[in-house]
Specification:
Pfam family, one (chain B): UQ_con
Organism (chain B): Rhizodiscina lignyota
Oligomer: heterodimer
Structural class of chain B: alpha+beta
Strand content of chain B: 5-15%
Largest sheet of chain B: 4 strands, antiparallel
Shape of chain B: globular
Distance between the termini of chain B: 38 Å
Largest sheet of chain A: 3 strands, antiparallel
Distance between the termini of chain A: 37 Å
Number of helices of chain B: 4
CATH superfamily of chain B: Ubiquitin Conjugating Enzyme
Structural class of chain A: mainly alpha
CATH architecture of chain B: Roll
Bound molecules: zinc ion
Order of helices and strands of chain B: HEEEEHHH
EC number (chain B): 2.3.2.23
GO molecular function (chain B): ATP binding; ubiquitin conjugating enzyme activity
CATH topology of one domain in chain A: Four Helix Bundle (Hemerythrin (Met), subunit A)
Keywords (chain B): ATP-binding, Nucleotide-binding, Transferase, Ubl conjugation pathway
Helix content of chain A: 40-55%
Strand order of the largest sheet of chain B: 1-2-3-4
């Protein structure tokens, strides 16, 4: 595992296969055109019946896929319009790849449209570099005889070095590609791809193509770039902005990164995007108050000796007095498995001690800290679990030697680690979600699910921290616990997603898309 | 970077000095530096800035004319499109990177600047509070602008 840990966490290759014939379960809007027409036949679809309610349909595309789809669309429209591909490409980019609208407007007012993109004169013959008599370049004021010059059909002629420099600046420094205008004063003509081919240095052509592909994805509502650093894939997903209060569209890029198609943040199921925005804003505003929480040391509630947390597990045992307690609530651990104890639920103090404004504000801070504490703790624990895994991975080879297990047989540790990462990511966001939930029966069910998942995770996490020489014996048990964790996570996510889709959650704030 | 950039600047400077735009004096701040120009612009007669002499600094970036010049008012001025933060930076459509075209000339920039003094553009303001006054209470705008002109731009 390398350092960009956020982006390799929690991907499970077989957990999220998609089913291509069922829809998102959301109302389809017939006026949205062009979205069913995704012609990536090369992409093999993986079908697995019974997609879970919190999963959405999506596809991952490589830059080559995007390029070929773009070319295919250009060819298609080029035949319909009777224009060469490079002109068609300009028109399509101008219309932000809405080909129906392009064809319609083109048929209505061809002249007007060509004029709008600076293609109003008839295009004949390839662009050429020429030398002109008595020429002075209006950019650099050079007037040497024999100076190479270039102009498009609009006639704005400049020396070749200036033209080239202008284009390379636009591409390199301003990141422009699809809509570079002629350098001539007040001229809106767009530089076509043949002219670019003639003037742009080979090393820049690649960058130019990249930028063109970028604008293609940027212009389409159903396509988004994977936000992982250096990732070149794009994801295709039909979930619309207006659906985001009803669904949390987590997608899984081929690079291993899980992100939300709605807001491109790292996976935040079960919390909807609008809630995530509110929560992150609140955390930012209150960061000073909450800072002390991220401390890695606390005092044992019984003997007051300092205890450092170095694994993800929240079940702590004091080295000195052997007292077992919970890192999050500092309560006795033995009570955590019981039905009456609730570590995850915030118990509202009875009305009497919150009469004045000060008490009220203290109580609302306490409430916030309860949720923030757990949110931050799972985030941190996921990191600590991961550190342990990295250490363990090194020891796995030792394990192979000492136990005679094969490499495949020690993969259970990786599976356990992955489950821990993924479940903690989910748990983290359940606390932001719960913070905004109104108190009712449904919330209680949610909290029960949350508690069950949390206990399952802590049990697995605890086992994970055992010395390597004990791990071999624990294999079967650990596999069971891993499966159980994943199962609890599916239950929680399915329940929240179903209710979200049905609009059944009652929040204590107003969420707007 | 371009071999011709010096030639272009020299040519523009020569033209501007032999035939200066109305109400302006243009010099180099330092004779050895072609890239920093000093301009004294008279407040246009028909404007609220009449009678004032405004000092401007115009800096040509290394990559001029591929990148637009940068213009700053050194004299304090009450105007919706000129920042009142001690920098006197000005927002002018043609000076934006995506609007600027390399054949655009400095003389055009200066003329646009002068026009902006005659006719501010409150919809594209850097000083939104001044823009509000300009739109809703022109009398009070006029009064302050004249006061500032007298205080900062006369006899200096
Ligand atoms: Zn030139
Ligand atoms: Zn032109
Ligand atoms: Zn990716
Ligand atoms: Zn989101
Ligand atoms: Zn203790
Ligand atoms: Zn607890």
């Amino acid at each position: 595992m390398d350092s960009d840990d956020e982006f390799h966490s929690g991907q499970s290759s077989d957990d999220f296969m998609i089913d291509d014939d069922s829809d998102t379960g959301l109302p389809e809007d017939d006026s949205d055109i062009d979205e069913v027409d995704i012609g990536f036949e090369s992409q093999e679809k993986i079908t697995k019946p019974g997609r879970k309610s919190y999963e959405v349909e999506f596809k991952v595309y490589s830059p080559q896929d995007i390029q070929s789809y773009q070319d295919k669309q250009i060819d298609e429209v080029s035949t319909i319009l009777g224009q060469p591909p490079e002109i068609t490409a300009i028109l399509l980019r101008h219309m932000r790849w809405n080909k129906e609208r392009l064809i319609e407007q083109y048929m209505d007012a061809q002249e007007q449209m060509l004029e709008n993109v600076g293609l109003d004169q008839d295009i004949a013959g390839p662009p050429r570099i020429e030398t002109k008599k008595n020429f002075m370049c209006d950019i650099c004021c050079d007037d040497q005889p024999g100076l190479e010059t270039f102009a498009m059909k609009c006639g704005h002629r400049f020396c070749v070095p200036c033209y080239k420099h202008y284009l390379s600046r636009k591409i390199k420094e301003e990141g422009e590609a699809a809509r570079i205008r002629c350098p001539g004063e007040d001229c809106n003509r767009i530089v076509d791809s043949k002219s670019l081919d003639l003037l742009v240095a080979t090393d820049l052509k690649e960058r130019y193509q990249e930028l063109l592909t970028r604008t293609y994805v940027d212009d389409k509502e159903n396509l988004k770039w994977c936000p992982a650093p250096n990732c070149v894939y794009a994801v295709d997903c039909g979930v619309k902005q207006r659906d985001l209060l009803k669904i949390v569209p987590t997608v899984h890029c081929d690079c291993g990164h899980n992100f939300c198609f709605g807001c491109t943040l790292t996976d935040h199921q079960p919390a909807p995007c609008a809630l995530v925005r509110k929560w992150l804003k609140k955390c930012e505003d209150d960061s000073e108050t909450a800072n002390w929480i991220s401390a890695n040391t606390k005092e044992c509630p019984k003997c007051r000796s300092t205890i450092e947390k170095n694994g993800g597990c929240n079940h702590m045992t004091c080295r000195k007095c052997r007292h077992e307690f919970c890192w999050m609530c500092m309560g006795v651990w033995s009570e955590h498995g019981t039905s009456w104890y609730s570590c995850n639920r915030y118990e509202e103090k009875s009305g009497s001690d919150a009469r004045d404004a000060q008490a009220k504000s203290r109580q609302s801070l306490e409430r916030y800290l309860h949720y923030y504490n757990r949110y931050a703790n799972h985030e941190q624990s996921a990191k600590l679990d991961k550190d342990i895994y990295i250490k363990t991975e090194k020891k796995m080879s030792q394990l192979q030697n000492s136990s005679g297990m094969s490499w495949i047989e020690v993969q259970f540790l990786e599976e356990a680690s992955r489950a821990l990462q993924q479940c903690r990511q989910t748990l983290k966001w359940t606390y932001a979600f719960a913070f905004y939930l109104a108190r009712n029966n449904q919330t209680e069910i949610f909290e029960d699910n949350q508690k069950d998942l949390e206990m399952a995770v802590e049990n697995l996490s605890e086992m994970f921290e055992k010395p390597v020489d004990q791990l071999a014996k624990l294999k079967v048990d650990m596999l069971d616990k891993t499966t159980y964790c994943n199962k609890r996570r599916v239950i929680l996510l399915s329940d929240t997603a179903d209710n979200l889709k049905a609009g059944k959650w009652e929040f204590n704030v107003e969420l707007t898309g | 970077m371009q071999a011709g950039s010096g030639k272009r600047i020299t040519k523009e400077l020569g033209e501007i000095q032999s035939d200066p735009p109305e109400g302006m004096k243009v010099t180099l701040k330092d004779d050895s530096d072609l890239h920093t120009w000093q301009i004294v612009m008279d407040g246009p007669e028909q404007s609220v800035y009449a009678g004032g002499h405004f000092k401007l600094i115009l800096v040509l970036p290394k990559d001029y004319p591929f990148k637009p010049p940068v213009v700053n008012f050194q004299t304090k001025i009450y105007h919706p499109n000129i920042s009142n933060d001690g920098k006197g930076s000005m927002c002018l459509g043609m000076l934006r990177t995506d609007e600027w075209k390399p054949p655009n000339k400095i003389v055009a920039v200066l003329n646009m600047t002068r026009n902006l003094l005659i006719e501010p553009n409150p919809d594209d303001a850097v000083e939104s509070s001044i823009a509000e006054v300009y739109k809703n209470d022109y009398k009070s705008f006029e009064k302050t602008a004249k006061e500032w002109t007298k205080k900062y731009a006369v006899g200096k």
